[in-house]
């Protein structure tokens, strides 16, 4: 890894974890709501075929999860992260210009492979952060996940008014930013980190389990965003089934 770039970082920053998780899940959330509707309403494939495509895409994501973890442990985390995001970005860019059948399904499979690997790598990088508590790191990660899903699903209904290529263009922009972030922030030297993570003292752990009103408000906010997401997806589905021709 050192022969790629000389400026090795000790760990990924907490802000990078939050922004990366937000963009990664926003890009994915742009894809999921429209897949079945687009395949059935515009490509005129049956719902059975659409469901089968989503199933195979999910299988490719699982395969990406596995390959991302294996390559993180046995090869180069940095190069694996770059390749994973590039694979997902390449699939999305292809879909901007070629989104007919069966290219749409094929590129979804490729996208699922890259997306799955990227998700695993983000979690692996976050788990290696030592300067902040594990709770803080993964709270930031999960906040990014939930906000990303809200941003993506809320945006797709508006973007569909301008056609399906616009949706893929915006998703590609997200992944292009992710590629730049990976290039800049993910060049981490893990060889200097201890193999066993530092465990907090029992007293500190017990004290941290006390009730926290801010946590309650955070959970309420996430529930609100989740309900808003469901409302937005419902409007998107209703509008799409009403006039499938506007996808073209």
Helix content percent band: over 70%
Order of helices and strands, N to C?
HHHHHHHH
Radius of gyration: 20 Å
Low-pLDDT sequence parts: 1-5, 195-209, 240-248
Mean pLDDT: 80
Structural class: mainly alpha
DSSP strand content: under 5%
Please give the number of β-strands. Answer: 0
In words, what does this structure look like?
The structure is a single chain. It is built from eight helices and no strands. It is mainly α and 248 residues long. The radius of gyration is 20 Å and the shape is globular. 34% of the residues are buried. Helix 1 packs parallel to helix 5, helix 1 runs antiparallel to helix 6 and helix 2 packs parallel to helix 4.
